[in-house]
Amino acid sequence: MVEFAEFDRLWRTWPWLPITMAMAIVTTIAMVTHRKRTKISLNFPPGPPKWPVVGCLPHLPFGPPPEVMFAKLAEKYGELMLLWMGTRPYVVVSSARMAMAFLKTHDPEFANRPVSVVRDYVSFKGNSIISMSASDPLYQRLRRVFIVELLSPKKIAAARELRKEQKMLKMLQAIRGELDASDRVDFRKAVSTLGLNLSVCMIFGRHCGGKVVPKEIETLMFTFKKAVKLIQRINISDLLPSIRWLDIQGIEAELRDVEIQLRKCIMVLIEQKRLEMSSWSSSEIESGANERDIMSKLLSLEGEDRLNDDQQMGVVFALLIAGSDSISKGIGKAIEELLKHPLFHKRALDELDEVVGRKRLVEELDIVRLPLIQNIIKETLRLHPPAQLLIPHGNLEPCEVAGFHIPARSSVLINLYALSRDPLFWDSPLEFFPDRFIGSNLTVLGNDFHYIPFGYGKRGCPGLNLGMTTLQYGLALCLQCIDWRLSASSTVSETSVGSKDLPDLFVDGELRVDPRLLDSL
How far apart are CA 89 and CA 305, in angstroms? Predict the structure, then answer.
């Protein structure tokens, strides 16, 4: 939200601010008038009335999360809306039909990213796969590196033991310790830490998984969390680019500092990895030492696949963004839903006992024989995808979609909250019901546009396979090892969709397996 106290201070103490604002308003009015003269015959998507400078902001029902607000507006304006937020056009997609139009039919036109202040500072000079244009040759090269060299099924399988031993089991060991000490644990904090730690561990290797976190890793995680908070803030400079130079909220100044810190943290870890690799013997290399973690593989690339420092830092940041939140949110929300639905919780435990038992720990290879665990993750991703609004798509040129004129440089928001609750495709869409996937051909690959938790097309998530593998295995292991229960004073909110700052959720529980299975690392 805009920090009005700070704005008021600037207004009173800096005499040039009123003049600057007046110039911005006059310029914007002139641009709007020019647009009206040239766009009379164009058929724009419906949307709230637009005012000079502020656009439709006065008509938006602020309060609920954005995805909920957009879904409510779609009930009035339809499956495709045009919202002028400040002076920027935002196109909101709220149906599977329109999602297919933008992500498949017109994928080449909309496979770009809109300009934003955040993008300028966390793209590492335009080298992040998340923010760069899909038409950029570097994007194509990086995406191929992700899919073929870093996140292929073979590479995912090679890191199986790393995911298990270094983080999954260590998180459960930590939770067990807290339960032994105080009979309860802050579950949301635990899974949030798991998501970030597991992502860092898979990127930089086994040395991140010890009981004492190295200082460099700790600094990186602290700085990364600061960056995420800044990314999540609404920046008035994005809505009113003509006054960006004022940096009214101070977000750009903070981003500048965070970028410097991120560069320093990531480069220290990259140099450490280079030093480690220089000491490898020929036998270690032949035995696949460079396949142990993502950074080892990155530094081993040769020829045209070789990446410079900025590109390597961009890869690290993209993996942290995509991995940490999806892992923690997916596993966390799945268990929260099971705590609200004890029948499915019991059935999941029975399935684990029947297929795996309690004398050994579940393995990733067991997942194919655990259909309910798979369906619980699918249903969790329907109600709680990694992001309820896909990362915005953008078009460089004006174009026509489904008979509507889409202005150039629009930010296209695909509202998964609306798609996954559309009664045309889902029976009882608000209900958590994993059995809806029994006998269904629905997958997370995105072939059915009412279910695209990882996106689709050129901007679809390249780490989809790793994400699903980690979520399914993580949930199975958490359920097998601990019989989770809500603490006496805790409740799971039914309306927590989209909330950024949820209250602590304390749980207790008992070990379901032999403690020696967790102590044998």
Answer: 37
